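Ligand-bound model needed. 1,3-dihydroxyacetonephosphate.
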Amino acid sequence: MFDTKMVERIGELKKERNAVILAHNYQPPAIQDIADLVGDSYELSVKASQTEAEVIVFCGVHFMAETAYILAPEKTVLLPEKLAGCPLADTITAEQLKEFKQEYPSHAVVTYVNSSAEVKAESYVCVTSSNALKVINSLETDKILFTPDKNLGMYLGNKTEKEVRVWDGYCITHERVTVEEVKRAREEHPDALIIVHPECPPEVTRLADEALSTGGMIRLGAETSYDKIIVGTEMGLIYRLSKENPGKEFKLLSPGLVCPNMKYITLDKVVESLENLKGQVTVPDEIAVKAREALERMISVPSGD
Ligand code: 13P
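Prediction:
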């Protein structure tokens, strides 16, 4: 089927199924263009929890669809390609988190949304990169165990007065960005603003002008008076930034900023998923109930980095 035919078919199926299509900012252009909402992890979680649609097609990776299901268990949540995982989420299991908690029994567990449902269920609160600092500062305790992303955890540790102990996980895509790449970008584009995601290593984040969630980058892209912006996050964001800000130039900081998992979703897989309700994601009740508490605490703290 040609793309235009598939786009038409998706429109028909969306009506038949009463479905909404949610896409992360890292999704390929064709997917962003058919989505009802393109957003960051926080925005998509909130939308999933509030939508009146019966079916949610989640164009992103597995933990995102799982989060949508936990927040809206009465909906059918579809992930059009089951291989779309998150290596960062896989860096910690619930068993490992239980051991980590035993080592630091007086610390509160704050877990990045890029994690499995089982790990969320063992956590007090979840965060996204757009509200993590606010969540940490809002907690009564000043001792935090942060899982699973050490880079985001260290970034937060430098921004808060609280003690933040981190798990040793990282995003393989953001971890690839180097100090040399930031220095080279500065030399080659002295007139540009350099923004990076806080999943990048701390020495990279320190050299950049701003560290922001993808939603924060979208807001900054619209508001900044710079007309050249170097972007240190997954390449999918460049499409949306360029589309929404035609007068500005957005350049990728590093050629390594490609997440293969985010590229699994294609138009034909969305068609197949909607036609056959293929790729349903669910979470057992006993885990979902506990994970929902941590996610609802997350959603109750507004985003806006
Ligand atoms: P945000 O879109 O919330 O910034 O998250 C980025 C990310 O790495 C998702 O996997």
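The radius of gyration is 19 Å.
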